[in-house]
Write a structure and sequence with these properties.
This protein is an alpha+beta fold. The protein contains 18 helices and 47 strands. Helices cover 20% and strands 28% of the residues. Strand 21 and strand 22 (529-534) form a beta hairpin. It is globular and about 90 Å long.
Length: 951
């Protein structure tokens, strides 16, 4: 180090010393400014601006062209950590390469999403990996390792996990509270985050918009109690966009923004993503909190230190900016091959009665459906450099002369009340402009095109391609391929290459306008306004809506039936557009396939029984597959989706993807979207007791595999399980071997079976692989609410080995030691209200705004109605004679023993508010002694925090 080189730029010093040095050189105003997502330039120290947050879920997003890999749920379907690690490596390499030519590209990547796919109607299902915490953490860990790189000290990119915590609903997502009982919290929701953080390749997390147990995630004590306890590393917690303001504006959790900002910072939020690129509001709020004594400078320094720790690991202050600064690999042949490999490995064969693979020489193939010639992107995709649709893939693999195509759209004209038709006027140049191709820090702000003429009316009109994506949500496409869209000036133009945007401007709904159903108003869903014909052209307006009649010139099912009848095999490609009906901000309402696509499937099947269904979707469907000889599912597979699908259909690749979540048979199998109690409501494959359409882990192959030679041995700290898998087919293929476990005689409800380990292996014909797994004894523990700790029960544990959670080929049992169940010491410690064993109509809420839980009835409004709580095996010792409850609000409590004896009735309050707790004591009607179950009934808007007993 020379005399002119400050210690923070000395790469020979430890990171911690360099961070300390830089922190002391920053003045207070500079430190405060660094708390915003867009950190400032500090010219006097030669420090560049820094931005937290670069979307990179399955490729570099929002910043223009990049390699696009399969959606995250598709990567989860590969069950292949090594593949996903390589995808993460490719994505982070492209981040570096793109940053070298565009400094808007950030190195703090907001990926992956580790929210568990608990409920298949969640709009963001495409972003997660699995409903299972073990599989989710395995895939997420692999992706973060690829994103991080393998240098011992420096990171290629700094991954941030999304979204902490228990976040599976877009409905009221910024105000709804997820009621998460302690067992679900520890055994399910925290687990995916914990195992990924403990693996050591995570730079931080992003709290979710929602509340958990009545408290916003951005002020959650779990950030300190759990997240930061899992690692010695300085994790960076980045808020979600606008969430700091939500604490006051929509959640009304705090009275002022200064209070809210201080609470978030003290809870552990280090970077505030709010008000876009304008940091002034956050700076003003932090300064106000400092002036009011809500924060101290040490609180600001702690957050800035965490951010600086990430920047140092990224090499920002090293000579040449670290070992990864010269990464230039972008859209390389290796990346393209990897995108194809990932898309192939994500394909799941759900059903096959011998129709696939398509190996008959010269067979004629009909490919039909709304997605047959589409390569769809989602909100977190980059811009495609390469593109392959199913139709293009089939043309390439089988030859265009053997493949017939019918999209299945309805061809329509829209006739106005004066007899003219909506018409797309000719344009001198429509171009091939793609939304977002130039990159945008906030693509939600991208505007629609206004350089094209708006629609008019004339005597002939334009024949539009109408697609109904479900729930009456329509798109209308002009013959040149452009979708009708509405720009900021309100005019309707044929201007969009695809539906998209934060608020989709390409969707419409036909609303009946007469009793006969012949006349309609055309409502534009993005603005909520109706289409109107004006002198300047067709636009959306609040008045004078145009009354239109739909003239159908060709029904989609007619075109489908025509090409299906003359084919040897029909491939119906159905699914979703990721920007419509199920996406960020919008949950789905049903598992059913949209009616338009159902009609196309029925028409194809009626015309030709050799019809296979190819589902390309972000989520599961409930479909009767009884009469279908083959069904296949893949998530939207990125740039190589069509080629991959064709290679699987042709048998060039044997499918080996596996379902990462349960496919339920009907909506009736689903719990409420906001019911987060996976144990009590028997959710996911872990607890579901019905018959699924397709089970977790399901996926067929063109090959056959034989399992054998099971062995299990319990050691001092682990259990070693081994078995063999033998390939009995004729060509090399992958198999995904899955190992599940369960206690034979549990004392509390435990999963029917839980994934312990898995491995995707490639085997040549006749080859055998011996697979072995070493499982820590902690894998067999559960959260014991009676004592607030993990506990492994002694007894027999069964291992199940197979090709899915239900296709079990081998079984074996081992005896494990452990800690026997012990009754609750209620006389000495009382009961935390949230530590119930069972509940009915109860909701966990915040005890205070800082910490703690309470329980309240979950009525039509918070605290209304009646709730019942059960606490098993309560030890009252020699005898309890009184009860004291800590409560707020008003209402009553009844305490009853399991044998039916009523112990007490207590009337409460009302108190001054939900956080104004009081203690109410009553003598028991008869003494309670020894061990009994305790039932507590809550009535009215009260909050119960604790129950104590006196001798």
């Amino acid at each position: 180090m020379t005399a002119q080189t400050p210690p923070f730029r000395d790469s020979q010093l430890p990171f911690a010393k360099r961070v300390d040095d830089l922190l002391t050189r920053l003045i207070p105003a500079e430190r405060v400014a660094m708390l915003h997502q867009f950190g400032p330039v500090v010219e006097r120290l030669g420090i560049n601006a820094f931005r937290t947050g670069q979307e990179a879920l399955h490729g570099v997003a929002w910043m223009g062209p990049a390699t696009v890999f399969p959606q995250a749920v598709g990567l989860g379907a590969t069950w292949n950590e090594e593949l996903v690690r390589r995808v993460g490596e490719a994505v982070s390499t492209e981040v570096r390469a793109m940053r070298s030519r565009d400094d808007r590209v950030g190195l703090n990547v907001w990926a992956p999403t580790v929210n568990l796919l608990r409920h298949p109607l969640w709009g963001r299902n495409e972003e997660g990996y699995s409903e299972d915490p073990k599989l989710t953490s395995a895939i997420a860990t692999a992706y973060t390792r690829g994103l991080r790189g393998d240098h011992p000290a420096h990171w290629r990119t700094a991954p941030v996990l999304k979204h902490w915590l228990a976040h599976n609903n877009e409905t009221d997502r910024a105000t709804a509270s997820s009621s998460v009982r302690p067992r679900v919290l520890h055994e399910y929701d925290l687990r995916a985050f914990r195992e990924t953080v403990e693996a050591g390749s995570v730079a931080g997390v992003m709290p979710a918009y929602n509340l958990v147990n009545g408290r916003p995630n951005h002020v959650s004590p779990y950030l300190a109690e759990h997240l930061r306890a899992w690692t010695d590393q300085d994790l960076l917690v980045c808020s979600d966009a606008g969430a700091p303001s939500n604490l006051v504006d929509s959640e009304h959790y705090f009275a002022t923004h200064e209070e809210a900002t201080a609470a978030a910072l003290l809870a552990g939020v280090d970077s505030f993503t709010d008000h876009g690129t304008d940091s002034s509001t956050i700076i003003r709020r932090v300064q106000g909190a400092l002036e009011q004594g809500l924060l101290g400078e040490a609180d600001v320094d702690r957050a800035v230190r965490r951010q600086l720790a990430v920047r140092f690991r990224l090499g920002e202050f090293d000579p040449g900016q670290g070992p990864y600064a010269d990464c230039t690999d972008f859209d390389t042949p290796a990346h393209r091959a990897l995108a194809l490999e990932a898309a192939e490995q994500a394909v799941v064969l759900l059903r096959n009665d011998g129709l696939l693979p398509l190996t008959r020489e010269g067979a004629r193939i009909a490919v039909v459906g709304l997605l047959a010639d589409e390569c769809k992107l989602d909100w977190y995709s980059g811009t495609l450099i390469h593109r392959s649709t199913p139709l293009e893939g089939l043309y390439e693999r089988f030859g265009a002369d053997r493949v017939d195509f019918a999209e299945g759209v309805d061809r329509v004209r829209l006739r106005t009340s004066d007899g003219t038709y909506l018409s797309v006027p000719p344009a001198d140049w429509a171009g091939d402009e793609v939304r977002g191709a130039g990159g945008a820090l906030d693509p939600a702000l991208l505007a629609g095109r206004t350089d094209l003429p708006p629609l008019t009316t004339d005597a002939v009109g334009t024949a539009f391609a109408l697609a109904d994506w479900g729930g009456g949500v329509l798109t209308l496409r002009a013959p040149d391929g452009r979708y009708l869209s509405v720009a900021e000036d309100g005019f309707v133009r044929a201007s969009a290459n695809q539906p998209g945007g934060w608020v989709v401007q390409e969707t419409f709904r036909l609303e009946p306008h007469d009793s006969d159903g012949d006349k309609h108003l055309l409502k534009h869903l993005g603005t909520g306004r109706h289409v109107s014909v004006t002198a300047g052209g067709v636009k959306v307006a609040d008045e004078n809506p145009a009354v239109v009649e739909l003239e159908i010139t060709e029904r989609g099912e007619t075109a489908v039936a025509h090409v299906a009848a003359s084919a040897d095999v029909v491939l119906v490609v159905a699914g979703n557009d990721p920007h419509i009906n199920g996406r960020e901000t919008q949950d789905r309402s049903t598992l059913a396939l949209p009616a338009h696509q159902r009609r196309l499937l029925d028409a194809a099947r009626a015309a030709n029984p050799r019809t296979a269904l190819m589902l390309t979707s972000s989520y599961p469907y409930a479909i009767d597959t009884t009469d279908l000889p083959a069904v296949l599912w893949t998530a939207h597979g990125g740039q190589a989706a069509g080629t991959a699908l064709a290679r699987v259909l042709a048998g060039d690749v044997s499918p080996a993807g596996r379902l990462p979540q349960t496919w339920y048979a009907s909506d009736a199998d689903l719990p409420g979207l906001l019911d987060y109690d996976v144990i009590g409501s028997r959710q996911t494959y872990l607890y579901f007791e019905g018959t699924p359409l397709f089970p977790f882990g399901h996926g067929l192959s063109y090959a056959s595999f034989e399992y054998g030679d099971f062995a299990a041995h319990a050691g001092e700290d682990s259990v070693r399980v081994g078995f063999s898998v033998t390939h009995r087919g004729g060509t090399a293929a992958d198999e995904v071997a899955q190992l599940y476990g369960r206690p034979v005689a549990p004392s509390v409800p435990r999963p029917r079976r839980a994934l312990l380990a898995h491995r995707r292996v490639r085997l040549a014909p006749g080859a055998t692989a011996r697979l072995s797994f070493e499982l820590p004894l902690s894998a067999f523990a559960f959260w014991d609410v009676a004592h607030g700790s993990w506990r492994r029960e002694p007894g027999a544990y069964e291992f199940l080995v197979g090709a899915s959670s239900e296709d079990i080929r081998l079984r074996g049992t081992v005896e494990l030691d452990g800690t026997p169940a012990a009754p609750r010491p209620v006389l000495e410690q009382g009961l935390r209200a949230a530590d119930f064993d069972e509940q009915r109509d109860a909701e966990i809420v915040d005890r205070t705004k800082l910490s703690g839980d309470a329980v309240t009835p979950a009525g039509p409004a918070a605290g209304e109605g009646t709730a019942e709580l059960t606490y098993r095996a309560c030890d009252f010792g020699a005898g309890a004679r009184s009860v004291t409850v800590e409560v707020s609000g008003g209402g009553s409590l009844d305490l009853t023993l399991g044998d039916g004896r009523t112990l007490a009735h207590l009337a409460v309050g009302p108190t001054a508010g939900p956080y104004a707790y009081t203690t109410v004591t009553a003598a028991l009607r008869s003494p309670a002694a020894e061990v009994h179950d305790l039932h507590v009934t809550l009535r009215g808007p009260l909050r119960l925090a604790h129950i104590g007993f006196g001798g």
